[in-house]
Every structure is written in structure tokens, then in C-alpha cells.
Design a protein that fits this description.
Length: 317
């Protein structure tokens, strides 16, 4: 197993020391599906079955010598949610041609994206269940005519309710009484087993591919002196950074336990985090289109992430 170097940067039943459902029910703000509405578009699913074509396919391709083919699974940090316009056929998943998995093809040597199944708002359940009108991501992966060289995956942030914390920061405060501890408990005690099981399912779906789990970038300023957002005070900035780091530690360890690779993107946006003067991260918006873009990398941020992952894919072969 190969690991990239770098500092740490969201199925049923009980896992670890807590019951997952009970943990989420402790606070009204900790509803991992909010603010999203999960809708299954049966027409799309039917087309998938009839046509036999993965819903998020970027285009069938065979890797030339020295290059790689890549299938990208996961959530908004792989779908490219911060870089509109989004593909009209899959608007609910907010997949963008400017997402870092697609930008891998622009680097040298190119890594051609043959499946872009990542979907904004996806939780670990999206691997085996439809979400936002898109078929289960592993179903799309298995439908590829040729196994990809690499399967990348970003997942876990929505399970942990990370986006809700960010919205709460602007609307009132980042963490309610005890909420930061409850989220840390979930990330450290419950999420590890969920992720290990998820990674093993991906391995089973693509037994001949490299499985590369990609961590989340740090999106808040690393020091208060760099912070230009009045809504983010020193204490909350530290709490957000701590939760982000805890999430990445959990993801890295789960990847190791499942026998898959891990790539850290913790330093990819360094100096360009949200609330910095030259930010590569979209600011928090509470309404309309700006809400979905919130705290997601811009085009410049996606390019930085692509370079980080590209380096790991080719340097570690």
C-alpha cells in the first residue's frame, strides 16, 4: 500500500461506542441530510438500466502508455460543486467539468477521467443507494466496460455534518452547546467503522484498480491574522480547524485499515483558504446558488487539488 506524505488536513446499526442514529438525534442542528433534499429521479435510474451507461460517465477511454484512467466517486469535493456551470443532465449532483478529477487530464502525463460519479451532498450511503437522482456510485463503477486504473474517493464530510457547521457559523455561531464534542465523538468513534466498510465495498467493486482515498483540504485560515471574515472569531476558527483535522485523521486511519491509499490535500490551498485575501475557496452563502458553492474550492482551488492528487498518482506508481 502506498501513502502520500503530508499533514492531516463527512450502515446501519451501532458502530464504536455510540449508536449512529441516536447520536444524530441529540440536536436539531445535527441533521446530516439538511439542508439538502434527497430525491430519487426514477426516470434517470430507468435510463441507466435501459442504456447500460453510467450516469456520470465522462467518456469511455483507454489509457495510453504512461497515462492512467480514473473513476471519481464521492461527494461535492470531487463533483466540483464550487466551479459552475454544472452538467445539465445531472444538475442535482452539481458535477462540473472544472472539478479536480476532470482537470487531471490537463496535466502531464494525463490521467483520463472515465467516470465522474461524485455527487454533491453524498454520504457513504451513496455508494450503495441512489442519491439526488443518481444511481448508486458503485453500480456506475461496475458498469464500466473496462476497469479503471484508479478509483478516487472523497467521502465522510457529509456524514459528519461538516457543511451544517459552516452555515451555522454565519447564521449564528459555529457550534452550539456541546455540539462540537458530539461531532468529534461521531468522527472519532462511529465514522471509522463506516468508512472502513465503505472502502472495502469500493475495493470489492473494483478489485483490479488502485483505490485512492483523498482527504479534505483545510478551508479556514490557519492563523487569525489571515482571517478577513468578521463572523469567524479566533475560538471558532480553531474549533473548525480541529474538526477538519480530526476528520482527516479518521479518514487516513480508515484507509490504512481497509488497505487502500490515502492522499492528503491539507496543504493544497495553503495561503488561499476561505476568508484570506487571495482565497481559492467560495465564501459562505446562506441563500440561492451561493449556498451550494459555500466553502468549496474555486477553479484555482480545483487546479491546486488536481496537482496534489496527480503528483500522488504518478509519483507513487
Amino acid at each position: 500500500m502506498r501513502h502520500s506524505t503530508g499533514a492531516t488536513s463527512r450502515f446501519g446499526g451501532p458502530h464504536g461506542r455510540h449508536d449512529r442514529t441516536a447520536l444524530f438525534s441529540r440536536t436539531a442542528t445535527f441533521n446530516r441530510t439538511a439542508p439538502f433534499t434527497w430525491t430519487v429521479l426514477f426516470v434517470s435510474a430507468a435510463l441507466f438500466v435501459l442504456l447500460g451507461t453510467p450516469m456520470g460517465t465522462a467518456g469511455a477511454a483507454t489509457a495510453a502508455p504512461g497515462t492512467l484512467t480514473v473513476a471519481a466517486l464521492g461527494d461535492s469535493y470531487s463533483s466540483g460543486e464550487g466551479t459552475p456551470p454544472f452538467e445539465a443532465a445531472f444538475a442535482s449532483c452539481r458535477r462540473s467539468a472544472g472539478a479536480w478529477p476532470r482537470l487531471l487530464a490537463t496535466l502531464d502525463p494525463p490521467a483520463t477521467n472515465v467516470l465522474h460519479a461524485a455527487c454533491g451532498g453524498a454520504t457513504t450511503e451513496a455508494m450503495t443507494k441512489p442519491q439526488r437522482g443518481s444511481p448508486p456510485q458503485l453500480e456506475q463503477l461496475r458498469a464500466l466496460p473496462t476497469p479503471p486504473d484508479v478509483v478516487t474517493l472523497t467521502i465522510g464530510g457529509n456524514d459528519a455534518g461538516f457543511s451544517q457547521v459552516m452555515f451555522s457559523c454565519v447564521a449564528w455561531k459555529c457550534f452550539w452547546d456541546g455540539d462540537d464534542r458530539r461531532r468529534r465523538d461521531y468522527v472519532e468513534d462511529v465514522l471509522p467503522d463506516v468508512l472502513v466498510a465503505t472502502y472495502k465495498e469500493v475495493k470489492a467493486a473494483a478489485p483490479h484498480s488502485r483505490i485512492v482515498v483523498v482527504g479534505y483540504p483545510t478551508v479556514v485560515p490557519r492563523s487569525q491574522s489571515d482571517n478577513t471574515c468578521r463572523w469567524l472569531d479566533k475560538s471558532e476558527r480553531r474549533q473548525l480547524a480541529s474538526l477538519n483535522n480530526a476528520l482527516n485523521r479518521t479518514i487516513r486511519r480508515a484507509a490504512s485499515d481497509a488497505g487502500v491509499e490515502y492522499v492528503s490535500t491539507d496543504r493544497s490551498l495553503r495561503g488561499h483558504e476561505m476568508c484570506t485575501k487571495d482565497s481559492w475557496v467560495n465564501p459562505i452563502g446562506l441563500f440561492g446558488a451561493s449556498r451550494s458553492l459555500s466553502a468549496h474550492p474555486t477553479r484555482a482551488g480545483q487546479e491546486a487539488l488536481a496537482k496534489t492528487v496527480h503528483r500522488a498518482l504518478f509519483d507513487d506508481r
